[in-house]
Specification:
The chain is of the alpha+beta class. The protein has one domain: Orthogonal Bundle (Arc Repressor Mutant, subunit A). The chain contains six helices and five strands. β1 and β2 form a beta hairpin. α2 packs across α3. The model has no long low-confidence stretch (mean pLDDT 88).
Length: 132
């Protein structure tokens, strides 16, 4: 709870909405949920999201152009999160693994490359949908 004290009111509201949802949300979906809380423009949501992403509290799913709350508070320390996204039910599972971070750091070093952003998304069909 003390970490939430560092958040602005808008950041706290956006994070709360994402935390209550079971799936990814677009900025406009977030805006729709927060209109009653004084949000009037997408820019308010995007600013809050940008800060929350910078804090490691929210992730952007590039392929879905959507956002989810971080489910592993260790992401900030590990540095890399991967996402497994079901194309049928759109369930997203966040995976934090030191081996992924080490592999990418080694790859960047081997190629003399300084990465500014990393996004790993595996898309396919989850086990539940496959069995259905």
């Amino acid at each position: 709870m003390s970490e939430n004290c560092k958040l602005s009111n808008n950041e706290r509201l956006v994070l709360d909405v994402l935390g209550r949802e079971t799936g990814p949300m677009s900025a406009y979906m977030i805006l729709d949920k927060l209109r009653g809380s004084g949000f009037r423009a997408p820019l308010q949501v995007y600013r809050a999201l940008e800060k929350l992403i910078g804090m490691g509290r929210v992730h952007r799913l590039e392929s879905l152009n959507a956002f989810i709350a971080c489910s592993h508070m260790s992401c900030e320390k590990i540095g890399v999160a991967a996402f497994v996204i079901c194309e049928r039910c759109e369930h997203v599972q966040e995976v934090c693994d030191d081996s992924v971070s080490l592999f990418l750091a080694g790859l960047a070093e081997k190629t003399n490359f300084k990465a500014s952003k990393t996004s790993i998304e595996l898309r396919g069909v989850c086990d539940a949908c496959e069995k259905a």
